[in-house]
Design brief:
Porin; single chain; mainly beta; 6% helix
Amino acid sequence: MKCLILLSLILIGVPAFAQTSLGMEMQAYPAGIVPGIRFDLGISDQLNLTSRIGYNFTDRRNWGEHDNEEGAGPGFGLGLERTGFLAQNLSLHARTDLWFMDIDWSDPYSGPILCGALPCPDEIGKTSIVILQPTIGIGYSIPFSNRYFVKPSLSFGYEINIKTEGEEVGQGAILLVGFQLSKSFK
């Protein structure tokens, strides 16, 4: 957590004079939501370095390795975005996020003891994971004043569990629908 606070101070404090936009971002995927704060730094007229700090909430139900997986954790991401892709307000982006999540999971009891008329207890556990999530996507910027804009986006990528403490939990392809509300400093 201290690393995330330090990273946010660096992103806000040092390059503040070079920011092209600052705002809030929300992404949703079939198993969760990711609210965050987004910073975009202009590298050229059509290229931005994007960064965000966020929190990933997930409820994977039985889509993972266990019958029920849910949890949350902080993370951050860095990427590149090319604006003016095929159309003036259309952008193409590539980003990689790193998430530090705790997943609580449960499975129906499958042991050798029969429970009879009583319900058998679920097998439960907790797994800590570090997820690497590379994505590519498109966005469409819709200005609603000279300084503010909204940008819906669609991204596709892959969740890769690069560090697992506990039993294996789900990973795989991911589709994210996003929405950004930002203030431009151009």
